[in-house]
Amino acid sequence: MVIQRLAELGLAARNTRRLLARGGREVGAGHYPLFILLHASWLVAIAAATPLRTQPFWPLIGVFAVLQLLRVWVIATLGPYWTTRVITLDGAPVVRSGPYRFVRHPNYWVVTAEIAVLPLAFHDWAIAFVWSILNALLLRRRIRVETAALAPRSRSERTPSPRIESTPFKHRR
């Protein structure tokens, strides 16, 4: 997990630099360090609280593996726009493909599930509970920031719905 998260941070940093170089701007940077602290402390808590001989609950490890596939799907869908920060770039499309066709903020759904599932797989109920609450509090702020940042682009992409002209129904005799 640590290697995966560090690799993702590297990819996110590269994408962030590229988006900023193209004129993007970061919004809500103040809460970003709290996410780093949350995720790092979550991994440390799992490692510290889990005895080495603990047998995992394998079905939840399977669920966690599926969550990793969903995470890859999100990252691949966003491509160069995927980052761990909220970066907005005027004129960039609002992504509505991949998992975004089905739910808003799919990455946050995946992370929320991961934060609960991994510690539960190692019988760490308290970690699952506490970090899930902390994550929910942070996501509440993050989703507001992200929604506000995307709002101008979302509005500009909307096209008026086609107007359906009413025509009289002709009966056949």
How would you sum up this structure, described in words?
- This protein has 5 helices and 2 strands.
- By secondary structure, the protein is mainly α.
- Strands 1-2 form a two-stranded antiparallel sheet.
- The longest helix is centred in the last third of the chain and has 33 residues, at 125-157.
- Residues 159-173 have low confidence and may be disordered.
How do the strands and helices of this protein lay out in sequence?
Layout: H1 2-21, E1 25-26, H2 32-49, H3 58-78, E2 87-88, H4 106-121, H5 125-157
Antiparallel strand pairs: 1-2
Short description:
With 173 residues, the chain is an all-alpha fold. It has helices at 2-21, 32-49, 58-78, 106-121, 125-157; strands spanning 25-26, 87-88.
Unreliable spans are: 159-173
Distance between the termini: 72 Å
Sequence of secondary-structure elements: HEHHEHH
- Tally of separate helices: 5
Q: Overall 3D geometry?
A: elongated
Strand content: under 5%
Features:
173 residues; mainly alpha; two-stranded antiparallel ribbon; elongated
